[in-house]
């Protein structure tokens, strides 16, 4: 009888460990939003969010994004009035801080179709 209890406990512990791994995979989620560039400086872009994507940002929020990005081809040069899609490694918990992006790319006014 004790042997069966130990086997059942081992199976339950293994199942719970598998759930913990699934939760850690959620941490690997990438977050994206897009919007209009309202100010373009060498060190950062100020973007008005038009599409919050899967981030917690609100539509209409103004966000600063660093132009120092992880992407191999860097951040393209932007001018005010152009549109950008921003990919983040973490959700923007405090939109008052300048965000560090994985990549920033030019998109059309709808936030789709990347522009080369």
From TrEMBL:
This is DUF3221 domain-containing protein.
């Amino acid at each position: 009888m004790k042997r069966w209890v130990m086997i059942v406990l081992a199976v339950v512990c293994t199942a719970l460990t598998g759930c913990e791994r699934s939760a850690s995979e959620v941490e690997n989620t990438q977050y994206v939003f897009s919007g209009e560039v309202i100010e373009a400086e060498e060190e950062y872009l100020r973007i008005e969010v038009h599409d919050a994507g899967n981030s917690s940002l609100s539509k209409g929020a103004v966000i600063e994004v660093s132009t120092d990005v992880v992407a191999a081809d860097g951040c393209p040069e932007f001018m005010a009035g152009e549109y950008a899609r921003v990919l983040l490694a973490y959700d923007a918990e405090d939109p008052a801080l300048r965000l560090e992006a994985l990549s920033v790319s030019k998109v059309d006014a709808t936030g789709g179709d990347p522009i080369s």
